[in-house]
């Protein structure tokens, strides 16, 4: 018997998993298979009442921002770096002239990149739609920030001239380039966790977005490819790839300057529709809501994902972004999202709760509108919410070195748990917390290759040999129900 089918769960959980499981998803969780089956059967993109504890909280009408969260309680052409079915191929520079943030992993990356995508899969396990930005990270002193007139610890959108002025001021400083972005951090971690077929087939992970035909665009594509994440979007001719300059002062505070470039334009066309229609989990990055008119692209992509039976995940990304584009967030979260990733501040912002409200209250509230809600609360732990209930996940012990990227790593753990067959929420959250802790105790935002392999092996072993120790907390006294 497979370790995936040997997990014992309380009757309340078992009732969810009575739907037939397609052979294609025999390695996936019953949660994924049940949701997929019903979305395929009904084609509405909304979870129906028959799904037990994940089912009956969505209304029949469309959700609007005015009806919720106001009060308490209540463009693309598929390409492959080495060719694919059809004639598309990568035409960009490989970007080797840039120093990589992951230079300390060169040996691991070379081994990892050995599995090339010469033939694209029939379906993608996960496809992310997000901002494709190259990060320039450097250590600076407070004097430089003052000279540039920058407020420490803030994030600012800059134009081409401002970017040039900052880079010129950094001349002589040591900085590194990386294929950055919150979503790409999660996708790389997921691909590394699923690189070797431990407990299931190797995972096929991809990303779509906008990069220019400049060397930075080639660098971005090449770096993701080395991490076994296929970047499926053709470069925009004469476009300029977006960048984020990350200035870190000795007190570990980060000041970020974002230049959107071509990444501010993401259009919906038949090629993007074709990619989305062949995806099992479609992830939308919340930072996209900052881009003009991108909400139209997101809505059409989500509608296509619903028609094809894919699960839709949304990352909250940033509190200020939520506040500026609140209605757009709820257009997607309220009508399409099956999974929501947020930290405690972002969750409160989505609920219009004050800072005095607990993250568990926000988790419970959001879980009335989204089937699976993941809310992280830093060193205090995290919560997974379903239908007005919240499972507390203790933090995984670690000595923090760099907390940047912790939430991205946590999200990868939730996605990996679903795809690898976890039917209990506590076990899924425990895995996600361990992955986040692994990233927090290192310098840099990416889950390293060997750490990912070790985590995947340990997770598979624990599921197979100790299923009783990870039984679900649904129905136990660890859950607080409204």
From TrEMBL:
Source taxon at top rank = Eukaryota
Could you list this entry's UniProt keywords, alphabetically sorted.
Kinase, Transferase
Keyword Transferase part of the UniProt annotation: yes
The record's family statement is: Belongs to the carbohydrate kinase PfkB family.
- Which species is this UniProt entry from? Gossypium arboreum
Which CDD domains does this one have?
adenosine_kinase
GO terms (molecular function) for this protein are: kinase activity
Q: Which PANTHER family match?
A: CARBOHYDRATE KINASE PFKB DOMAIN-CONTAINING PROTEIN, SUGAR KINASE
Signal sequence: where? none
InterPro entries linked to this entry: Carb_kinase_PfkB-like (IPR052700), Carboh/pur_kinase_PfkB_CS (IPR002173), PfkB_dom (IPR011611), Ribo/fructo_kinase (IPR002139), Ribokinase-like (IPR029056)
Any one Pfam family match given in the protein's UniProt record, by short name:
PfkB
What is this protein's name?
A: Sugar kinase
- Fetch the PROSITE patterns from UniProt: PFKB_KINASES_2 (PS00584)
Is Methyltransferase one of the keywords UniProt gives this record? no
């Amino acid at each position: 018997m497979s370790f995936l089918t040997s997990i014992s769960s309380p009757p309340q959980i078992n009732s969810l998993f009575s739907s037939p499981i397609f052979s294609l998803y025999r390695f996936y969780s019953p949660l994924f298979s049940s949701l997929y089956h019903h979305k395929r059967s009904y084609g509405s993109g909304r979870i129906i009442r028959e799904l037990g504890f994940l089912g009956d909280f969505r209304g029949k009408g469309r959700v609007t921002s005015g009806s919720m969260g106001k009060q308490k309680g209540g463009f693309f052409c598929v390409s492959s770096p080495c060719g694919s079915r059809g004639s598309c191929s990568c035409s960009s520079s490989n970007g080797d002239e840039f120093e990589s943030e992951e230079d300390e992993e060169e040996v691991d990356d070379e081994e990892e990149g050995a599995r090339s995508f010469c033939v694209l899969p029939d379906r993608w396990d996960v496809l992310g739609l997000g901002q494709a930005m190259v990060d320039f990270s450097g250590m600076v002193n407070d004097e430089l920030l003052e000279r540039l007139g920058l407020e420490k610890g803030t994030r600012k959108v800059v134009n081409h001239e401002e970017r040039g002025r900052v880079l010129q001021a950094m001349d002589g400083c040591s900085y590194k380039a990386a294929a950055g972005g919150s979503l790409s951090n999660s996708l790389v971690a997921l691909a590394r966790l699923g690189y070797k077929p431990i407990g299931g087939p190797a995972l096929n992970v991809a990303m779509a977005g906008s990069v220019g035909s400049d060397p930075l665009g080639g660098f971005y594509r090449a770096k993701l490819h080395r991490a076994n994440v296929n970047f499926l979007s053709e470069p925009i001719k004469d476009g300029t790839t977006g960048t984020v300059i990350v200035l870190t002062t000795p007190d570990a505070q980060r000041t970020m300057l974002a230049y959107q470039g071509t990444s501010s334009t993401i259009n919906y066309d038949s090629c993007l529709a074709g990619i989305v229609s062949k995806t099992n989990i479609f992830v939308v990055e919340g930072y996209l809501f900052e881009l003009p008119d991108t909400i139209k692209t997101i809505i059409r992509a989500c509608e296509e994902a619903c028609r094809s039976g894919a699960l839709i995940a949304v990352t909250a990304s940033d509190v200020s972004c939520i506040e500026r584009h609140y209605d757009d967030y709820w257009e997607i979260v309220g009508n399409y999202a099956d999974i929501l990733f947020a930290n405690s501040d972002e969750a409160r912002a989505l609920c219009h709760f004050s800072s005095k409200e607990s993250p568990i209250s926000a988790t419970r509230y959001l879980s009335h509108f989204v089937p699976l809600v993941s809310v992280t609360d830093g060193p205090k732990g995290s919560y997974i919410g379903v239908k007005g209930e919240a499972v507390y996940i203790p933090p995984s012990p670690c000595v923090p070195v760099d907390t940047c990227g912790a939430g991205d790593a946590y999200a990868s753990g939730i996605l990996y748990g679903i795809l690898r067959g976890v039917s209990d929420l506590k076990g899924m959250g425990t895995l996600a917390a361990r992955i986040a802790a692994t990233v927090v105790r290192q310098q840099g935002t990416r889950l390293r290759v060997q750490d990912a392999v070790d985590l995947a092996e340990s997770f598979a072993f624990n599921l197979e040999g100790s299923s009783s120790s990870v039984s679900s907390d649904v129905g136990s006294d660890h859950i607080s129900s409204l």
